[in-house]
Amino acid sequence: MHAAARAYTNIALIKYWGKKDEQLILPMNSSLSLTIDAFYTETSVEPQKELHEDEVIMDGTNLSDASAAKISRFMDLVREKSASRLFARIVTRNHVPVASGFASSASGFAALSAAASRAYGIDCAKTALSRLARRGSGSASRSIYGGFVKWMKGSDDASSYAVPVDSAEWPIRLISIAVNRQIKKLSSREGMKRTVETSPFYPVWVEAGEKDLDRIEPAIRRQYLEEIGKIAEANALRMHAAMLTADPPFMYWEEGTITAMKRAIHLREQGIACYFTIDAGPNVKLLCSEKDVGHILEDLAKFFPTDALIVARPGPGVEYIDRPV
Ligand code: PMV
């Protein structure tokens, strides 16, 4: 059966950084994110008798590299759960604003999980999709849901999945500042492994992250942006501090990353609620209220090209689509 799905990317406010189980992708700590509407992936999956291997077409190009192999290994997991052994034709398209600096693995594996589960006739319940998406990329487990989402670390394959926390139907916005769009030199997989194995700060990162999570959930329920922002900013800085103290140390920041962080601090001094978060790359995301977007963009435009600034709203969860990708 042919099936297609769309999923949106998410930005973690309490980060996932470090695996307890590399094979099953079980995280060391629970994490929490906001799904956003600025970037999504659409993917269709069609099992076909004639194929001798999976065929992956991404943004119009036939993939034959490591990413095709990664997708094919993921499809093996789907086949293990299904009665079908057929290979599939997988067509995937990323809808990303030019220059946004958004990564695609979260929306990509969330969309693929939904499309493949339906195409192969396996469990399409949200929890099952979240567990499956997790096996492709940890953060993808959260893109199954819209709004604020928590990935519960769990203790095994069955108990590690995401749950919705809040629909985020309030005027919260996330401004993405694309500092550099090059592919990062050190993958999150490698970066996490090195941090877990060598940073003396790593245990502190895990412990503090759990406390952040306990504090951010009530703040989300109260729609208390300042509190959410402060917790998220401190959490991101602690993750980067753990990277800086790994052996050998590494850093994803560039000059523009620091500039963006300082603008957020400066805007706060002017009384504007605006908080940064940074993933495994140089790009910065600012959490703010809809009413302040104009003022913040005006300030940022003095330092960054306007096409590097993308404003996102909370986005929806994964959905099935019935037209070709
Ligand atoms: O899901 P991965 O393997 O791409 O790792 C994501 C890691 C961070 O983006 C830095 C944090 C997160 O929770 O999304």
TrEMBL record:
Looking at its record, which EC class is this enzyme? lyase
- Mvd1 C-terminal domain location is 178-307
Domain of life per record: Bacteria
The Swiss-Prot or TrEMBL record annotates one GO molecular function as: diphosphomevalonate decarboxylase activity
Against SUPFAM superfamilies, the record matches this protein to: GHMP Kinase, C-terminal domain, Ribosomal protein S5 domain 2-like
**Which InterPro entries does the record associate with it?**
GHMP_kinase_C_sf (IPR036554), Mev_decarb (IPR005935), Mev_diP_decarb (IPR029765), MVD-like_N (IPR053859), Mvd1_C (IPR041431), Ribosomal_Su5_D2-typ_SF (IPR020568), Ribsml_uS5_D2-typ_fold_subgr (IPR014721)
Q: Which UniProt keywords apply?
A: ATP-binding, Lipid biosynthesis, Lipid metabolism, Lyase, Nucleotide-binding
Q: Which residues form the Diphosphomevalonate decarboxylase-like N-terminal domain?
A: 7-162
Kindly name one Pfam family recorded for this protein: MVD-like_N
Gene3D superfamilies for this protein: 3.30.230.10, GHMP kinase, C-terminal domain (3.30.70.890)
E.C. code: 4.1.1.33
Q: Which family does it belong to?
A: Belongs to the diphosphomevalonate decarboxylase family.
What is this protein identified as?
diphosphomevalonate decarboxylase
| Protein species of origin | Sporolactobacillus shoreicorticis
Starting at the broadest rank, the lineage of the source organism is: Bacteria, Bacillati, Bacillota, Bacilli, Bacillales
Gene name tied to this protein: mvaD
